[in-house]
Structures are given as C-alpha cells and as structure tokens.
Amino acid sequence: MDVHPDLLLPDRIPEMERHHSKPSQVLPFALYALCALSDEELAACRQQCVADIDCDDNIVQLAPKAVFKDQSLRIIVEYHVELGFGGQFDGKFFIVVVHPSSYTVLVVALDDDELQCKPDLLWSKIGKSGLVAANLGIGIIMWDEAKDHSMHKIYACTCNLDVTFNDFNLTSVMALRTLGPKAAAALDEELMSTGAFSIDQLMELAGLAVSQTMYALSPPSKSPNILVACGPGNNGGDGLVAARHLHYFGYKPTMYFPKQSKNELFGRLRTQLEQLKVPFTDDFVGTAKRSDWIIDAIFGFSFSGEVREPFPGVIKALAESKVPVLAVDAPSSWNIETGPPDDGPGKDYNPDALISLTAPKPLVKWFKGRHFVGGRFVGEDIAEKYGFDVPPYKGSDQTVEIGSQGEKL
Ligand SMILES: NC(=O)C1=CN([C@@H]2O[C@H](COP(=O)(O)OP(=O)(O)OC[C@H]3O[C@@H](n4cnc5c(N)ncnc54)[C@H](O)[C@@H]3O)[C@@H](O)[C@H]2O)[C@@H](O)CC1
Ligand SMILES: [K+]
C-alpha cells in the first residue's frame, strides 16, 4: 500500500510577519500538486478550482513550479513563502491537489486570523476551492468559519491521513458525514418503499459499482483472477452480482459462497453465474493464493457479534493476505460504528480498498486504503434527509474515489 502524503505543517512561519505591513491586494491563488499530474491535468484542475467563480477565473493560477510529486506539504510551504513575496500570488493562501482522482483539495493558510503566523489547512471540494480561497483572501469569511463550513460540506474521508495530521484531523474525523448501521438499513427500507426500488435492483446497482471499482483498481489485463468471497446476506448478494459483471468485463472470477441463504434471489444469482461457467470453490485459502485480487463480500452493515463458522478462518486469511483485497461496504467482521474488533480474526484486517455503498459508514475512520463510494441511485432529497452528500460521479461511472490516500488510478 502506498505511503500517505505527509501533510504536516510547521507550528509557526515567522517569515509571514513581513506580510503584516503590506497593503492588502487581491492576487491570484497559487495551485500546486503533491502527485504526478500532466500539464493538461493540471490545467483541468485549475479550471475545476474556478468552476464556481462567475467573474474572474484567473483568481487561481498554477504556481511557476506546481508539481511536487511525492514530496511533503512542508516543501510546498517553503517554496510558497518565497513565491508570496514576489507580489504575483497571494502570500497567505494557496491550493493543493493531493490525490489526482479525488474531488477534494487542500486550501492552506500560512497565517492565522490573529496574525500569529500559525499555518493551517482545510479540505474543500475542488469546485469550491477557488471561491473559498477568494472569500478568505478578501475577508468575506474568516478561517474558522470556512473550516467549519467545509467540514460539513465535504464528503471525502480525510481520516486516512491521521498519521500526518495535527489537531485538524480530529475535527475532520468528527465531522465526517457517515451513515450508521440503523440509518443505512432505514435508507434501504425507504428506497424499497417510497423509492419504489426492488432489492434486486439495488443489489444489481451495488454489484455493478463493486465491479467498476475493481476495474478502476486493476483491469483484467493486469489482474484476471478474482476470488469473490460471499457471505449469507445481501453483502454476499452484491458479490454475486459483481462477479457476473466481472465476467463480462473480461475477468475470471471464482466464487467462495459457503453459506447460501434459501432466499430465491440468491439461487437465481448463483444460477446466472453457473450458466457462465464461473467456478465455485470450497477452498478459500488455496484459491486466494492463486488469485490477483480478492473481493470481500462476506458481511456488510448487518454484521454483529463474534464471527461464526465457517468464516473465522476466511477472515484470518483476509487479514494475512498478500493478495490485495477490495472490501464491499465494510471490511468483514468490523463493527460498523467502532471499526476493527479488539481481538479475533479481524483484529489486524485492513483491506487495500473499500467501496462504501451509498455512503461511508463510521468505520471508515479506521480504514487505511483506497476508498470509493458506489450507489448512483440516491437522489439529493434522500441524501439530504439522511445527512450525506451525493458525490460527483463522472460520465457513466457508478463509483467514485474519495479521500486523498493511495496510489494514482
Ligand atoms: N444501501 C445499499 O446501497 C445497498 C446495500 N446492499 C448490501 O447489503 C448489505 C447489508 O445486507 P444485510 O442486511 O443482508 O446484511 P449483511 O450482508 O451485512 O450480513 C448479514 C448476514 O450475515 C450473517 N451474520 C451476521 N453477523 C454474523 C456473525 N457474527 N457471524 C456469522 N454470520 C453473521 C447474518 O446471519 C446474515 O445472514 C450492505 O452492507 C450492502 O453490502 C445491497 O445489496 C443493496 C443496496
Ligand atoms: K464486506
């Protein structure tokens, strides 16, 4: 797994005192990247940053040296301190793209509202970042206000960066808009009652999102052999659907489905796979070793208590797996609210990737890998009612990567 970017800031930047005596002036905000971006991608990011600005879209400009691939935020800070004295860019605020496929960016302030030269940062949706910086730059909003506001509005889970964060991280984690197990179940109910969806439809969309996430992580040309581990509930159903799509995408899925529910839907999903000659195995551990990726569709938001047979050995194998794992909705055996169990087979389980269905659950606070959201079937009204944001899916994608960790797609 990739190292998270180092976003630590210095406690104080004494050089900023030199700005205190300068007359205020509206200058462009510099845009930087901590990841590899081509000139075209950088230009596109700049465009996105100013997407919400009506009048002057030159307010965000690429810094003369804009890309600091795999370097620490401190290096950009040092560079920007010098750049800011040149009078071409705003000396106090700048914007940083941390992960190329995330739709959040950092807005960094090198000084605080009390002019104590204390730097800080906030996450902003990329489309709002230019406006946020502009509002801060001309004093329409104060830093604390902008920070509060952005915390409630952004959807991305910054929690994965906790090793590199200061106090800011705690605020961001607390303010994450996640969906607890009861709310997730209630939302499912609502989609199936007033929303008029059937469970087959929701599962089909969830499974499609899982398969698209697998494709985004590693296409079949690189990772043809996928072991899909399915549990007895709807999480397992998502895995069965995903496997069918994976087959059509060109993968060779193998199913581990040791405890099939009597529900006829699961029988149909199994038959569909058997007709495609997708193999079912009883040997999870042996097949796992020969696979390129594993999909963990064992338990989702209705898991509780200690893992019962036959799953403890499977969870242990997932925890120890050298083969990368994509977890569906939750790393199986994790408590939806409190994350990894204190002991038992899932204690050290932290999969490489997670696709949260509909919205992230509170457990993402403990998750350290690449994070996607799938569920392009929830309208703004329902999302607002349940207190989460619909992420900006692109094109015809059913899934979108959020957060700022992990490798480039
Ligand atoms: N909100 C959404 O977008 C959708 C969610 N779906 C999926 O549905 C999942 C929830 O499905 P379910 O409510 O059926 O539940 P789960 O699939 O999370 O798990 C319930 C099953 O696991 C068993 N189980 C629970 N605790 C256990 C333990 N300690 N040891 C062994 N077995 C245990 C239960 O007996 C039950 O069979 C979600 O996480 C998601 O993956 C989709 O299928 C439909 C759309
Ligand atoms: K799972």
TrEMBL record:
Protein family per UniProt: Belongs to the NnrE/AIBP family.
GO molecular function, one term: NAD(P)HX epimerase activity
Organism per entry: Extremus antarcticus
Coiled coil spans: none
Keyword NADP: yes
Identification of the protein by name: NAD(P)H-hydrate epimerase
Keywords, comma-separated and alphabetical: Cytoplasm, Isomerase, Metal-binding, Mitochondrion, NAD, NADP, Nucleotide-binding, Potassium
Broad class of where this protein is predominantly found: cytoplasm
Catalytic function, reaction form: (6R)-NADPHX = (6S)-NADPHX; (6R)-NADHX = (6S)-NADHX
